[in-house]
Amino acid sequence: MAEIHHFTYGIFNPIAAYLLAFLGSFFGLLCTGRARDARTRGRRNRWLGIAAFSIGGGAIWLMHFAAMLGFDVPASPVRFDVSMTVVSLVVAVVAVGLGLLIVGHGRRSFPKVVAAGVLTGGGVLAMHYSGMEGVHVAGSMHYNLSLVIASAIIAVVAATVAHWFAVSVRGWVRVSGAASIMAVAVCGMHYTGMAAMSVHLDNNQIDQVHGIRPLTMIVPITLITAATIVGVALSALQAMTEEEFTDGAGTPKRGIHAESSNAWSLKQASLAPTAPTGTRRPSPRPVPVRSTGTN
C-alpha cells in the first residue's frame, strides 16, 4: 500500500477549501432567502437556481478540488481526467438544485427537509466519488467501507442541515454562522472520504498514467470560480433590479419608483385612445356680463 499525502502544501489546502465552502454556502443562503421572499414561482426558481450553482458548484465542487490540489502519492504520478471532473460538477449542481426545489416550494415541513437532505446528500456523495474516479494513479484505489459509510452519513446530515438553514435562516449574522457550520460539514465529509481511500501501486503502470497535472487544475478552477462569482452576481443583480422596479406580478410599480417607469408611462400614453381627427372640442359657453347698476 502506497504512502498518501493529503496536505502537500501544508495548511494552505484546508484553509482554501474551507473559505470556498464558506463563501459558496454564504451566497447560496442569501439567494435562498431571496427565493423565500419572491412573489412568483418563476422568480423563486431563478433564485433557487442561483443558490444551486453557489452551493453545489462553489461550496461543494470547488471546495473538493481545492482540497484535491493537496493530494499526492509520492511513488506515483497523479493526474486528473477532465471529463469525469466536469461530470462531478454537474452532479453536484443538479443534486443541490433538486433538493432546493423540494424545500423551496410549498409549506415548510420536516419530512420535506429530510427528503431533500437525503437526495442532496446522495448527490454530494456521488460527486465526491465520481470526482475520485477522475483521479488516475499508477495502480488501483480501494476504500474502507466503514469510512465510506461515515462520509455518507456526514453528507446526508450536512445536506439536511443546509436545507433547513435555507428555509429558516435570515439576517447577515445568522447566515454567516450557518455558512460556517455548512463549510465545516462539507470539509469534514471530504476529508472523511479521503481517509477511506488507499492506493495499491502497480509499477508497470507508472508510465501509463494519463490526464492533467494537479497544479494545472488551478487554471480551470480559477476560471470557473471567477465565472461562477460573476454569473451569480449578474443574475442576482438582474433579479434584484426587476423585483425593485416591479411588483410581484411583473407590472411596474407606481409612486416611489415612478421616475424609473417613464418608459412604461410613455408606452401607456401612446396606447391611450385619442380623439378622431376632424372632431372639435365644444367651446365653453360665454359668461354673461353683469350690470353694475350705475347709469
TrEMBL record:
Region of interest called Disordered, as start-end residue ranges on this chain: 265-295
Pfam family, one: MHYT
InterPro entries, sorted: MHYT_dom
Domain of life: Bacteria
Descriptive protein name: MHYT domain-containing protein
Classification lineage: Bacteria, Bacillati, Actinomycetota, Actinomycetes, Micromonosporales
The MHYT domain, residue ranges: 9-200
Keyword annotations: Membrane, Transmembrane, Transmembrane helix
UniProt keyword annotation of Transmembrane helix present: yes
Transmembrane segment boundaries: 15-35, 47-70, 82-103, 110-131, 143-166, 178-197, 217-237
Biased composition (Low complexity): 272-281
